[in-house]
Amino acid sequence: MIDCPSCGEDEELRGVGLDDGRRQITCERCGHSWTRGTATRVVAPPTSSRRIASPASGSCGPRWDDDPVVATLNDEAPNLEVSGPDGAHLSFAPGRERTWEVGDPVQTNRVFSYIVVHDTGFSPNPFHGLLTLACCKPLIRKTASVGDIIVGLSSRSERIVYATQVAEVIAFEEYWADPRYQPRRPVMNSPQIVYRAGDNIYEPVEGGYRQLPSFHSNRDGSEDAGLKRTDLSGNHVLACERFTYWGRSGPALPEELQFLAVGRGHRSNFSTDQVQTVARWFADLPGGVLGAPTQWKAGDQSWRET
Question: Where is the Nucleotide modification associated domain (predicted)?
């Protein structure tokens, strides 16, 4: 196991041998790449007629500059007047009535905090009236329970990207089959980025799952085996009704919440007093999508429609 210096996950990381004897390591979770080892050979610099190709790597990065040629489940982005796969009604409207008001007390026994390495609207996905965490962060998805609060932070823990409380812990099979979540399947040939960011990307098939063309597939729409393995190792999808998502416009981490700051992986070993401090802060949040993701196509306003 090698620790990724970018996202901190302990992963089985793939490596590619370089001509000078070092290895190019790529994190299968976040796509960060670095060299490891000591050069044992001298390599001549490339001439103008020679190009060195970078090793392929999985990435959670945005997919809005790809050529929209990948076949998808829907030929067009869903709207309020059409049905989607299996006849499900596709809508940006929340799947159920809002059951809470700002200031309502929040009961929780556990808090998670972590760095949102790639804030693209994919993981977490705050659109269509819910916030879901279906990909990345497998350890959180494997251990979180209903009622837990999750706080996602920017790269140096200086800002809050989102905060949410888990409402449901769902198996991948249910996430795929439940009509409430079918609008979250990606539409990679849509001109509106909010449809491309769908995280319901694992279709149950005989012997496992098929990874849909998505922010986690390869650029040509084929499966990214590394990211698929990481995603499915989390076992569950977390669905949240009460959430506040700021994206790039997130506020500074308040002084009273500085204990949430994290350098790598995630944190959940907070005292009872700290958990209750987070719960009181969370109770007064306004809810909803308040800003575009940090990595979002300039000029695209589809995030506002949710």
Answer: 109-298
Q: Are strands 111-115 and 266-267 parallel, antiparallel or unpaired?
A: antiparallel
pLDDT of residue 16: 54
- Residues 297, 252, 7, 136, CA torsion sign: negative
**Does residue 238 form part of some domain?**
yes
Counting as low any pLDDT under 50, the low residues of the chain are: 1, 10-14, 28-29, 43-57, 67-95
- What pLDDT sits at residue 265? 82
Are residues 12 and 89 both part of a single domain?
Answer: no
Residues 226-277: tens digit of each pLDDT: 999 999 999 899 999 999 999 999 999 999 999 999 987 899 999 999 999 9
> Does 150 map to a domain?
yes
Q: What is the pLDDT of residue 99?
A: 79
> What is residue 74's predicted lDDT score, i.e. its pLDDT?
41
Same domain, residue pair 116 and 262: yes
**Strand 131-133, strand 236-240: pairing:** antiparallel
Angle at 192 between CA 187 and CA 196, to 5 degrees: 30
- DSSP E strand boundaries for the chain: 2-3, 10-11, 14-17, 23-26, 33-36, 111-115, 131-133, 149-153, 160-165, 168-171, 202-205, 208-211, 236-240, 242-245, 266-267, 288-289
What range does the domain containing 20 cover?
A: 2-36
Q: Are residues 19 and 162 in the same domain?
A: no
How many domains in the chain? Answer: 2
